[in-house]
Amino acid sequence: MSASIATNQTILVVGGGISGMTAALEAAECGKQVILAEKLPTLGGRTALLYRYFPKMCHPVCGLEINLRRLKGNRNVRVLTMAEVSAISGTRGDYTATLKIAPRYVNEKCTGCGDCGKAVTAEIPNPFNYGLDKMKAAYLPHGMAYPQRYVLDPSIVGTPDGEAAKAACKVGAIDLGMQEETIELKVGAVVWATGWKPYDAAKIQPYGYDRFANVITSVEFERMCDPHGPTGGKILRPSDGKEAKNVAFIQCAGSRDENHLRHCSRICCMASLKQTQYVREAWGDEGKSTIYYIDIRAIDRFEDFYQMVQRDSTVSFIKSKVAKIVQDEKTGDVVLHGVDTEGYKRYATPHDLAVLAVGMEPSIKGVSLPADIVLDSSGFIETAGDGMFSAGCATNALDVNRAVQNATAASLRAIQVINKTASMEKA
Amino acid sequence: MSEQATARYTNDFLREVEKNVEEGHWVKMCMQCGVCAGSCPLGSAWAHPPQEIFMMIRAGKREEVLTSDSMWMCTSCYNCMVRCPRQLPITHIMHGLANYAHRLGLSPKGQPTQATATLFWNNLIKKGRVNELTFSLALYFKDGFVQGIKNALNMQAVGFGLMKAKRLNPMEILGGHAVKDQAGLKAMIAKAREIEDRKKGFAK
User: Quick one: closest CA in A to B56, which residue?
Assistant: First the structure.
């Protein structure tokens, strides 16, 4: 790639989820040159993996579609997928970013026909369904993938499967000789939109996520309810495929806990309230959702949604942080143990499935970052230096709506840096 | 407004606990999640689990808390403390409350943990070493002479076993071993008592 595409008046946006896309588009639509770098083969981030949004219960496809249209219609944004920032040096208005670009083994000739996927036999765990199912090693990440271009998993390169994929491609899009590239870019400002990851539920030892098949996380449940998900939208127990009609939701699984994540992840209460409506939708009055909570944090206008769920006869609320989960070996039921704060009654209640409303952990936790970046005690970016800004869930635990607002603000700050750099160069 | 209605909303007892009970200043930090209660291996034996005790303190139920046998049920397994999302030193608070109730003379009479602890303490401060023999005998006979004989007979095999393994010396009955500087020990205990009295509001 020629370095001329980037100058010290270019904005680098790191991360192509909803926040990164927003920050990039807002700046590009103001006439700024933007490079949007995404580590995965597709944009869309975790938003693309949601089935529905709260509180309107609409599909994320809609909002992503709009952003992708904006992106396709704008010549100022250049998208780099499978690109990871490995170093940034310099100062405001004069940064040098080093990016490592992993080989996709599929070039721009790809039409997304899927012949390579059919030809390949090897399967890999599907990260876009949180490993709940497997996908072919030549794959399109998901229906909303951008670019709509296949990817070959490195594990099949150099195997007969790789050759089969190459042979199946009618347009000659498969290039098994692709190598990792390292590029350097001059940029004036950087927006860190590195997003979040679900907290590792196995660390909450008494809940047995690593031991019991019928204890799953909220992000896994979200995929399960999606018609494009691993079960085709059916709510089934992983242990035996039985229809899960009696579902327990456990709030603060990791969040608000000094032993795990010390912050409130903000989205989980609303996410569980939303997911009770998936249960209702699937099973009608036969479905039963129970939310175990410390306190429900449905902030400002979400109170209406909370009240709507409270009126739902299939949903009950138990004020208690569950102390432990045990799976009944015979029935496969998960039994939740604890003490109810309203009355201090001890309970041991069986459910078909337990969904842990896992907290948001910043993706950059444990990653080495430029010295200018200061993290708070939870690992979110507090300040990022003079010409660098954080956007969305890199800043704090935010829902999509607030992440977009936050990203727009970050974009505006980056634009200011570029404008100042430009006016200084003119002078 | 009636006097009772206003009295209900004072937090005098919480203040008293914060001031006089060891680690008592943590009580206000409890967010009532219930993990301590649910994690307690002896939870079902408690009249009031820790989270309820904390709420009762905040609700000003002084009499009910201090006369309760709940905090005496704590075996110091530390499960609650390890798991508390706010890292409250729950085990220590329980011990602090038990001690405070005991010093006020409000703790339930004859509660076995309390009785044993008292015997142990009284035995220990005599010579600075626990006299296993007199301590065991005192424990056996705490519920009367007949029960004492029964207890001793029941424990006979254990006693001989301990003697054989040289863990129990029958000559201890004559007074037993002691620390070297007994006067120093007495002075130290007296000083500690003075400090504790000051901290817990018992200083005269």
Answer: A344
